[in-house]
Amino acid sequence: MYLIKKLIVCLDQTSLDQTLIQYAAFIAQVNQTKKIYFVNVIRNLSIPKEVIEEFPNLVENMITERQEQMESVVNEHFPKIKGISVSYIVKEGSLSKKILKLSEEKSADMIIIGRKVQLQGTGIASMRLARRASCSLLIVPEGSEPKMRKLLVPSDFSDYSKDALEEAIMIAERHGDVEIVCQNVFSVPSGYHFTGKTYEEFTAIMKMHAEISYKKFIRKIDTKGKKITPIYTQDKDDDPVQEIVSMALETGADGIIIGAKGRTAATALFIGSIAERLIQFNDSLPLMVTRPKGKNAGILDYILEI
Fold first, then answer.
1. Could you write out the DSSP letters of every residue in 268-302?
2. Mind listing the pLDDT tens digit for each residue in 284-303?
3. Rounded to a whole number, what is the distance in angstroms from the first to the last CA of the chain?
4. pTM listed for this prediction
5. Which domains does the chain have, with CATH numbers?
């Protein structure tokens, strides 16, 4: 994993901006962050040619106004941090396409975007960014408080689960006393009865194998002396995402970290069904979708229709 030296923060002129700005400051203070780009994307403007000809400075003035509004709210909620340079960028067009292109151009280490709960919004941009971004994505629900005392890392003991856990360990190193919970959600296969075992017996077998897999998994990771608590949860309703969110809330986690499935150019669009459903379902806690920097499907993704 890597330090977040370049950060893109997506603002939209709603009350959610304050939360995202505060999160940006929280992250920047412990990550040796050098540059933060606060970005606002205006939807495609359908202004008649005749109007543009009559008012040639209309778009330019609107962009300038947006930049000034962003600067005002950032100055209100972002503390002065030595060594950090801040830029304000206004783009016109598709949010996901413009942010993806900007993240490539600026070689960003992380993108922060909001998750609307009461405010109006679809959340489609978060999914598109998670699939195509060449860096990690932090999705922050409105009203979230910046803190890192406990993190939940769902794990199926894969390489991308390893990425997520290593990110959590790095966060724990930076923020100090942070507890990490590594959750494995297992299920009992429908044909268990053909083995001659009872449901309870086969549940115990599945949990035992999860415990063995965790021991093998954790041996490959440098925990840097940080305490990691494994938790094994049985999925009885064929809904592991519900189990993950419920466990995060039950344990008092401040955030969830999950690895994007795609680790190469060929697989980058596949972030994994669990990660996708977490993006859709979770509106309670900040969710970080980690991806090793540069491991995306390439520059053509934001050129093609999303």
1. TT---HHHHHHHHH--SS-EEEE--TT-SS-THHH
2. 999 999 987 665 544 444 44
3. 28
4. 0.89
5. 1-144 (3.40.50.620)
